[in-house]
TrEMBL record:
Subcellular localization, as worded in the UniProt entry: Cell membrane
Cross-referenced InterPro entries: ComEC_N, Competence_DNA_uptake
The keyword Kinase appears for this protein: no
Cellular component annotations (GO), alphabetically ordered: plasma membrane
TM segment ranges: 39-58, 159-183, 190-212, 232-261, 273-290, 296-323, 361-381
Superkingdom in the source lineage: Bacteria
Pfam families: Competence (PF03772)
Protein name as catalogued: ComEC/Rec2-related protein
Lineage: Bacteria, Thermotogati, Thermotogota, Thermotogae, Thermotogales
Length: 390
């Protein structure tokens, strides 16, 4: 499944770089089937990724559009071309978030609005905004991935980026709470997954979607009696997300989430996990952020323990707010901010450490690192070279 995941990634990259009717090459994978099934599968999914990327992409030109801006990216995009037509998500040059109507020029990479208006539209983002009016501080930052300059400079920002850690903590909290009402594990997990939906949709980043879908698929397959592995589940979710939206490949959240996760899944202890996570993230730090803090390795282990109680209580606060219990919710948020003292101390200590610049060209030098860290990369190479069977 990892081979399929990387083939789709490569295909989406080719589709973004070259506009071409890639489907004409599909018959080329058929003659390869008898010689090497693995190469044939890889070619098929590379072409599929390129073809899927070409569907619904927006050519350069002047447009009016509506959509949801999330982190300089417009999702749920519709453009007017005689009639309103749905297209793939695109990047936009704006600092606003939320539903927008805009008129401007799309250069093939970024939409440059000459006119932009925010739209009032009901969504779970409003729930997040209402919660933010009541809660501030580290509790809210950890819950929704809000990072200030101090967190960015600390090199510990990945703990504030909502990912598998946060979703896993929320899932354990909800199953624990439901266990007071039923002893059946299946019911506990089902209700916990349902309660997670408002939180996942209010954050709505590739990393949180990856974490939620991974838990969901893991539980479904386990209930049905299928044997699987975490790497297989992660690669399956990644492949599904690329099939549904190939443009997600070019978001920092997706790249960091999947490549780092796949690199650390076979870690034997927390020390190995921290080192692998840092090394796997380095090429993407070069590409998107241009710097790193040497404290990332020094403080990642204590930070991983310090954020757990804060995130646990923060999720409890959000759940109470979701249920309409505002007073208990605010009390829980205050408790979360109190127990976040070690987190704040570690961020301040990290900011005392030197920041190392990372030129973008290092991305091309370091990108093999997350591939090498994949525990079965040698097996994939052997299979694609014809020395083993799938």
């Amino acid at each position: 499944m990892i081979l399929i995941f990387f083939s789709l990634c490569l295909g989406a990259l080719l589709g973004a770089l070259f506009r071409f009717p890639w489907y004409v090459f599909f018959p080329a994978a058929i003659p390869l089937w008898r010689k090497n099934k693995e190469i044939s599968i890889a070619v098929l999914f590379i072409l599929s990724g390129a073809f899927l990327y070409s569907l619904g992409t927006l050519p350069p030109g002047n447009y009016e559009l509506v959509g949801l801006v999330e982190g300089s990216r417009v999702t749920r995009v519709k453009v007017f071309q005689g009639e309103w037509k749905k297209v793939r998500p695109i990047r936009i040059r704006t600092s606003k978030d939320g539903f927008i109507y805009a008129v401007g020029y799309y250069d093939g990479s970024i939409f440059h609005p000459s006119y932009l208006k925010e739209l009032e539209k009901p969504s779970l983002r409003r729930l997040r905004e209402e919660f933010s009016k009541e809660v501030r501080g580290t509790a809210f930052s950890l819950l929704f991935g809000e990072k200030d300059n101090a967190v960015y400079r600390s090199g510990l920002g990945h703990f504030f980026a909502v990912s598998g850690l946060h979703v896993g903590i929320a899932f354990s909290l909800y199953t624990t709470l439901i266990s007071f009402f039923t002893w059946r594990r299946m019911y506990q997990e089902l209700v916990a997954l349902l309660l997670l939906i408002p939180y996942v949709l209010s954050v709505n980043t590739p990393s949180v979607l990856r974490a939620y879908l991974t838990i969901l698929l893991w539980k479904v397959l386990r209930t049905l009696g299928f044997k699987t592995t975490p790497s297989y589940i992660t690669a399956t979710v990644g492949s599904l997300m690329i099939v549904l939206d190939p443009t997600v490949l070019f978001t920092p959240s997706f790249l960091l989430s999947f490549f780092v996760t796949l690199s650390i899944l076979n870690s034997k202890n927390i020390f190995e996990l921290v080192v692998k996570a840092y090394l796997a993230s380095l090429p993407f730090l070069c590409l998107f952020f241009g710097e790193t803090n040497v404290s990332a390795l020094l403080f990642s282990i204590p930070m991983s323990f310090a954020v757990i109680p804060v995130t646990w209580v923060s999720h409890l606060s959000f759940l109470l707010f979701l249920l309409g219990l505002k007073t208990p919710s605010m009390v829980a948020a205050d408790v979360a901010n109190i127990v976040s003292f070690p987190v704040d101390v570690l961020v301040r200590l990290s900011n005392m450490m030197p920041i190392i610049p990372l030129p973008k060209f290092l991305f091309f030098v370091l990108i093999p690192v997350p591939l090498i860290l994949l525990f079965d990369i040698r097996g994939i190479i052997r299979r694609t070279s014809g020395r083993a069977i799938l």
